[in-house]
Amino acid sequence: MASIARALRPLSRTTPVRLASKRVAAYRPIESAYAFSTTPRRRDADLADLAPTPISHLSETESMMADSVSKLAQEQIGPKVRDMDEAEAMDPAIIEKLFEQGVMGIEIPEEFGGAGMNFTSAIVAIEELARVDPSVSVMVDVHNTLVNTLILRYCNTQAQRMWLPKLSTGTLGSFCLSEPVSGSDAFALQTKAEKTADGYRINGSKMWITNAQEAGFFIVFANLDPSKGYKGITAFVVEKGTPGFSIAKKEKKLGIRASSTCVLNFDDVEIPKANLVGEEGQGYKYAINILNEGRIGIAAQMTGLALGAWENAAKYVWNDRMQHQIAQAYTEIAAARALVYNAARKKEAGQDFVKDAAMAKLYASQVAGRVSGSAIEWMGGMGFVREGVAEKYWRDSKIGAIYEGTSNIQLQTIAKLLQKEYTN
């Protein structure tokens, strides 16, 4: 299979919108004189003359990304889903294939070995992967929307040249923020960093860290000056194998079991000055901004999961007696997808998307839970046994209301922004 990224690079530079072949599970572009920009942000762009285009329609590049990743997922990942879930481990060959196909560096510029595509291309890839295996999807999501984006946005050119080629071509990344005593209140973290003659020393622990077992590159948030509270939080790069850094425990989970979630320990971990991400004391700002974008990725994971569960069940039970429930479920999925793609487009346009991202994640996770749960009931006994994947979709859906901000945190964000909008 030729590299997905290599095949789509020419299109990402000039991306006309065209009518693609119909496929029930993926949105398709229509004829328009205007194409969505493939640049990450368009804050200074004049949008006045942009022809109204349905948010559910994709550029040619995005559409082909959806098709290519769908084919990759069905052919390369699908046959291994059940075995990986039972073993609670990611097949290394899948990680290798994802890097080989360019799916791990979607927004990284070509000069650093990436695909040089836009944010929505990453979102469609995450969604397509989740239709087959949400465990693989979240691995790709965290790597692209959190790790790669943080380095791209906040590191200087020298640091980007050091790290991005690795992240594009073979080194999996992990985002290390949560701790045993700081989950939803992430900025109450206790991990400390102190300056040394040659760089920094880190002590503490992290919990609930995605990709930890397979990653070779960790972005670690630690407080460099506790007297400043959360304004002392700073981000650092710690590479696998650094003395004093260890993976203490791999969690046994209800769902997304092939995705590793681990406890990490830092015992006098020494890193050089070059491993500072951005500026000292800015880590809390970086985390907030990146997690707002990451929530769109999690929302896409949930809509992909819901689609996968719906398709699996609908093919098995479709009949006149079930058609109303099937139609209701698909309508909810379509509504969730509209929220996801609207948030992604607003992010690309440089508009304020925080409320949109929160609504997308909140609703998509709710829909994923409802649809995957209903799918089990539609299928009866066959939905309840582990011979199929129906029960796995439901187990995997539960995490959507928890990570990258619980549903209550999303509701709090939405309410806070609504209050500001309507009462001031």
From TrEMBL:
Q: Which residues form the Acyl-CoA dehydrogenase/oxidase C-terminal domain?
A: 281-416
Which cofactors are reported in the record for this sequence?
Answer: FAD
Instruction: Enumerate the GO terms in the molecular function aspect.
Output: flavin adenine dinucleotide binding; short-chain 2-methyl fatty acyl-CoA dehydrogenase activity
Keywords on this record? Answer: Acetylation, FAD, Fatty acid metabolism, Flavoprotein, Lipid metabolism, Mitochondrion, Oxidoreductase, Phosphoprotein, Transit peptide
Q: What reaction is this protein's catalytic activity? A: valproyl-CoA + oxidized [electron-transfer flavoprotein] + H(+) = (2E)-2-propylpent-2-enoyl-CoA + reduced [electron-transfer flavoprotein]; hexanoyl-CoA + oxidized [electron-transfer flavoprotein] + H(+) = (2E)-hexenoyl-CoA + reduced [electron-transfer flavoprotein]; (2S)-2-methylbutanoyl-CoA + oxidized [electron-transfer flavoprotein] + H(+) = (2E)-2-methylbut-2-enoyl-CoA + reduced [electron-transfer flavoprotein]; butanoyl-CoA + oxidized [electron-transfer flavoprotein] + H(+) = (2E)-butenoyl-CoA + reduced [electron-transfer flavoprotein]
Quaternary structure annotation from Swiss-Prot or TrEMBL: Homotetramer.
Q: What is this protein called?
A: Short/branched chain specific acyl-CoA dehydrogenase, mitochondrial
Q: Which organism is it from?
A: Penicillium chermesinum
